[in-house]
Amino acid sequence: MPRLFVFLALIVCSTPLWGQARQVHLVFFRDKRNSPFSLNRPQEFLTQRSLERRQRQNIPLTGRDLPVSPAYLDSIRKTGARVLYPTRWLNGAIISATEAQIAAVNRLSVVLSNATQRLSRTEQSGQSENTATTPEADWSAHYAARVEATEAFNYGFSERQVSMLGVDAMHRAGFRGEEIHIAVLDCGFQGFNTALPFRNMTVLGTFNFVEGTPNVINSCTHGTRVLSALAAFQEGSLIGTAPRAAYYLFQTEDNATETRAEEAWWLAAAERADSLGVDIISTSVGYYHFDDPAQNYTLNDLNGRTAIITRAANAAASVGILVVKSAGNQGNRAWGRITFPGDADSVLTVGSVNSSGVYSAFSSRGPTADGRIKPDVVALGEGTIVSLPSGTITGDFGTSFATPLVAGLAAGFWQANRQLSNMQVIDYIRRSGTRARNPNDSVGYGIPHFERMQLLVTALSQQPVQSLALFVYPNPAKGETKIVFPETLHGKPVELVLVDISGKQHLRLHLLPSLEPLLLRAPLAKGLYWLQITNQHHRQTIPLVFD
Which end of the chain is more exposed for a tag (fewer CB within 10 A), N or C? Predict the structure, then answer.
């Protein structure tokens, strides 16, 4: 059975306010004055692991990291409104209030009254006030007993979804997510503590942000299925892409309604993940259409800065968290596009392909409203092997299940390259994609692969400070490509070597470059190759894709 540690949320219980015409609102404060917190004492509001994540990526603490002023929260409570969750990133609070109370809140001098947003018509049943201002206990030292890794796992039914991303090679290399903390934000996780595929999973904490309790077990099975693609370990049937990572399970989706309040719960969960020192957020929820049509987003809002959840995702990325988000399943529906927060420029948005690597018609497309490529990458979302809460292994469809596959790839890769920042990890994932040189709005940069990512790291780490300034086109190439040498190399000896990702050499030339481009023809199989060009003083390695 998994070892479960439920972190302290410091919840103040109160009587449920059913039928009292309360609504959930997001209010914003004018500043963070009159606060007892200081950037000189960050341990009062961030765990040591959270601080270390920032330090590792050279991310300085800023005013956005400071909690909101307790005095400002008290002024809201005095109106009779309830503070459900403060938000330091947006400098505000998620509150529940009657119409009269919200009017009183908006009259407070510390509140930006013209910026208040109504998030839902009524407060969720049983939601209680969260008064936590200090970080929860850091459970990073508490791990469940591990099954010793074998040289090679038997992936059973899940072999294709794992090998498509090179995760089998990643696991063989010893990178299975150890020491990486992942928060999964979804609708609930029925069976995570009982189903056989989760028996070796490490769970550091759970919290239901919809109801304000640690209980994340309900009738929803979506979160369980998503989690299994990441964390399951049942040899011969299903092995997730990061089975040795440690997990926080956060419910942010309200299974009874569809309102902007769910964006606020996601924001609160992401801030909690930050304070706990989480490395990766994997989330397969997305929004654009709500029960109240007045709250619906438009395609023009897909600009990376409008939706609450998009702003939250970008804030999470800014403190060093890698956010992996499903593109959505609107590809063959009226909306068509990615769902929020997939439009965030600092988020890795994941679409779907089938087992042959062909785009899934249901997978939401890009671009963003401001013209950026989305999704970023794709993975198997048609027939993804997952576990039901009962432990039954089955196939499922949706970008929801492609997303955790990529999140696990990111976890193992980051484990192998801890010197990288979250944005560098995203860059390597994109650049390893099968369409890295020719991305589109259906599959983005294509299918990423661990071995190509590692080769990119190796090549770039060996890159000389002064490169040879070569130009190779077309790239990707169909059987032939041209190499243009800079004038500084004309008439000087150069060695050219072409190798595949296994290191096998396919071509070696010694030449004296001239003004005329070098035509490189090679009857090669499709795939990624490395073009290494060396002269007396410098060496340059260029990834070259043959379609």
Answer: N
Alpha helices in 85-153 (DSSP H): 99-106
CA separation for the pair 208, 186 (Å, rounded)? 10
Query: Is the CB of residue 509 less than 8 Å from the CB of residue 499?
Result: no
**CA gap 195, 44 in Å, rounded:** 37
**Helix, strand, coil percent content, the chain, rounded in steps of 5:** 25, 25, 50
Tell me if the bond preceding 476 is cis, omega within 30° of 0.
Answer: yes
Task: Find, among 511, 477, 479, the residue nearest to 494 by Cα.
Answer: 511
Task: Give per-residue pLDDT as tens, 130-143.
Answer: 655 545 544 333 33
Q: What is the CA radius of gyration of the chain?
A: 25
Given a contact cutoff of 8 angstroms between Cβ atoms, the answer to whether 420 and 428 are in contact is yes
pLDDT in tens, 314-353: 999 999 999 999 999 999 999 999 999 999 999 999 999 9
Q: Which residues, 6 or more positions from 503, have their beta carbon under 8 angstroms from its beta carbon?
A: none
Other CB atoms closer than 10 Å to residue 115's CB: what's the count?
Answer: 14
Q: Tell the CATH topology of 464-546.
A: Immunoglobulin-like (2.60.40)
Q: If pLDDT is split at 50, 70 and 90, which confidence band does 151 have?
A: low
| Residue 1 pLDDT > 90 | no
DSSP E strand boundaries for 266-321: 280-283
> What gap in Å lies between CA 256 and CA 332, rounded to an integer?
25
What are the C-alpha distances in Å from 490 to residues 449, 468, 537?
Answer: 36, 12, 14
The class level of CATH for 156-460 reads alpha beta
E strand map for 10-56? 11-12, 23-28
Q: Which residues of 468-478 are buried (b: 16+ CB within 10 A; e: fewer)?
A: bebebeebbbe
Q: Specify the range with the lowest mean pLDDT, choosing from 8-22, 317-331, 336-350, 364-378.
A: 8-22
CA-closest candidate to residue 38, choices 73, 66, 72: 66
3-class secondary structure per residue, 466-526: CCCCCEEECCCECCEEEEECCHHHCCCCEEEEEEECCCCEEEEEEECCCCCCEEEECCCCC
pLDDT band, residue 458 (cuts 50/70/90):
confident
Confidence band of 502 (pLDDT split at 50, 70, 90): low
